[in-house]
Amino acid sequence: MASRTQLLVLSLGRRFSQRIKEVILAVQDYVLLTVRGLAAIVTPPHYYRELLAQMDGIGVQSLSIVVLTGMFTGMVLALQSAASLDAFGARPYVGRLVAISMVRELGPVLTALMVTGRVGSGMAAELGSMVVTQQIDALRVLGSDPVRKLVAPRLAAALIMVPILTVISDTVGIFGGSLISIFNLKLSWEYYWRSVGNAMVMNDLVMGFFKPLVFGLILSSVGCYMGLNTSGGTQGVGLSTTRSVVVASVTILSSDFFITKLLLLMFPVV
Amino acid sequence: MRETMRALLGLGPKTAPAPPEPPPGPRDPDEPIISFREVELSFDRPILQGVSFDLAPGTTKIVLGGSGSGKTTILRLILGLLKPDSGSIHVDGTEVGRLGEEELRPFRLKIGMVFQEGALFDSLTVGENVGYRLAEDGEMPEHEIEARVREMLGFVGLEKFYVRMPSELSGGQRRRVAFARALIAGPQIMLYDEPTTGLDPITATTITDLIAKVRDLDGVTSILVTHQLRDAFNVARTFMAKENGEFVPRMIGDLSTIEGTEFMMLRQGVVEFKGTPHELQTSEDPYIREFLS
Lengths: 270, 293
What we know:
The complex is a heterodimer. Chain A is mainly alpha-helical. Chain A is built from nine helices and no strands. Chain A is globular. The termini of chain A are far apart. Chain B is of the alpha/beta class. Chain B folds into two domains: about 1-5 and about 30-110 and about 190-293, P-loop containing nucleotide triphosphate hydrolases (Rossmann fold); about 120-185, no CATH class. Helices cover about 35% and strands about 25% of the residues of chain B. Chain B has eleven helices and twelve strands. Chain B has a six-stranded mixed beta sheet with strand order 6-7-8-3-11-12, with helices on both faces. In chain B, strands 2-1-4-5 form a four-stranded antiparallel beta sheet, covered by helices on one side. In chain B, strands 9-10 form a two-stranded antiparallel sheet. In chain B, helix 7 runs parallel beside helix 8. The longest helix of chain B has 18 residues, at about 200-220. Chain B starts with a helix and ends with a helix. The interface of A and B includes residues 134 and 236 of A.
């Protein structure tokens, strides 16, 4: 009986160590792919047509969902914060609260999550389909570097477009908050916007720009990695798509904490 | 397909550093253009075990075998898409297994590959697919590329399909476009991975005729991987005859008179048979008899 238990423990231990090894190898592949993709952005040859197509896909075609998300987030934020601030007689600070919340947290995170759902999954599906239909092999046989041709333009496009989309989301969100403040909370237009202006400090802008850069890199690199790592035909493509959304979303949310902590240490709020 | 990712990142099996290659001299015409020596490859299970063969310039090797026997892996090894665990693979005097991804890119230009389903780029038109390699080189003006692409599409009988998208093509047309794409840069070696699988007999004959045409008119060395016996023997039997100023495909009746074509059969990664079409046809080996029946 004891020997059977020992065998079971040994087998579990072996499986666990195998799984750990696989995870470490996957992280190594992911980091290498990302580094090579980033290096390919700054070294020739460049695929400008591919870059423009990706910028269109990530930026222009994601605009509507980002605007809608930003607008309603700003509006609901104004409603919720007013309800809490009224208890302290601080309703006039709604603009400040909406602006800080949008620029520091909700704008970057929600934009990244929306773009991950729309674009990151698309990247995984597109590259995954290319793997299972041997188009990646065909690219290599025809003398192209798939990392340079496919990964680099996607990373570059995300690094450019996610910060721009975030700025748009922040602006629309603060505007949405102003609509609620004026028409529902009976605050004046000038007071709201002055409150927004007074709230913004350099720290907010640094956070507002740095976070979308990191999130853009995460969502595009995870999408590319999952896509290029696809196996098992069309079922595998579906699996890669789902995985890319889950992994990128969790990584974005967890990295948000560490970035915030780091930036608050570097630029403390006074 | 994890191998795809690792190969992309240059993380294949570790090989010893390449010894300095002697400077290229005049090529011995009898020297094989492709040479496998005791090639072994395993993933979760052994894929190839001790595979050795030679292929002389201008000849054709037809690789037969059931699913999972390692046929396609041989083509991927020749192209350097995979690296062997042990053994050596020489292509046109170069040991492929020792080349890195950067060195492989110019090397692959001398090889044309027709993938199983064509592997055409979905986002590009037929013309862009065929002219992809020339456009990537960036050395030829656009109008010359277009003229060359139209010529190649004419060769495979699809000159009117220049602006079509791959999704608008039938299975046979996709393979013919893949043919044109592989041929456009004038390769010395052509590799065909199951080019007739899933096609009706008439379309499959169009493809086997094309393989014979490329072999006989351009003297291209070829490896055809297939499990379709009829198409394999069609390629071996077909030759291009000049009639009324035009080349037309004709069939050799007697297998024993076929020259320049060799069959190789794989069984679970091991070479089960190597020989002429006639030797294959008359083999007494029970596995081969069962395969041929």
